[in-house]
Amino acid sequence: MRVLIVEDERVLADAIAEGLRDQAIAVDVVYDGDDALDRASYNEYAVVVLDRDLPGVHGDDVCRELVRRHGDARILMLTAAGDVDDRVAGLSLGADDYLPKPFVFDELVARVRALARRSGPPVPPVLERRGIRLDPHRRRVARDGRELRLTNKEFAVLEELLRAEGGVVSAERLLERAWDEHIDPFSNIVRVTMATLRRKLGEPPVIETVTGSGYRLETR
């Protein structure tokens, strides 16, 4: 998945982003409402973690506009105010969930993952295909019972292929979902990551290259 963090407290925003990246989640970070709306206009996000009390364009206005323009993105609103009236107000703007500050990071991760599952077609909590079993929440993957040690990017790429259920996933889609906006779109990073992932998955090979289109997990 790809997540946008909108938080004017830069230390907090960067800490959230780093923690989510450690969970194999692609993250972009902005520090004000104007940049949030600009970024969401050309990137596709599963979840937007949105501070309500932003300077400039207020988080409430960002939320309204994101709901109007990007109905598929789920919004997790953060705020220092945690009383019931504030939660009701935030949810009435179109936010999908609400988390008061300070929060426990593990809870934020769990809420982000829960919202991401609602941003697309329903998928099982554990993904399985061709003997591969991937658990996104425990960050574990095995093939035919053999535990595999994957990097964050390898894990994210494999998760996207499993979620496609045998469909073709383009390199551009993998760049969008597994990396953030700082990656060079002309890089060969997808090809390199795919090569190491294939090696770790072992024999028989299960990832097929579809010339001119992308990659998919073989169905047979």
Automatic annotation (TrEMBL):
InterPro entries assigned: CheY-like_superfamily, OmpR/PhoB-type_DNA-bd, Sig_transdc_resp-reg_receiver, WalR-like, WH-like_DNA-bd_sf
Pfam families reported for this sequence: Response_reg, Trans_reg_C
Domain OmpR/PhoB-type: 124-219
CDD domains: trans_reg_C
Tagged with keyword NADP: no
Keywords: DNA-binding, Phosphoprotein
Transmembrane segments: none
Domain Response regulatory stretches: 2-116
Residues with PTM 4-aspartylphosphate: D51
UniProt keyword Protein transport present: no
Residues within the DNA-binding region(s): 124-219
Family annotation (SUPFAM superfamilies): CheY-like
Protein's recorded name: Response regulator transcription factor
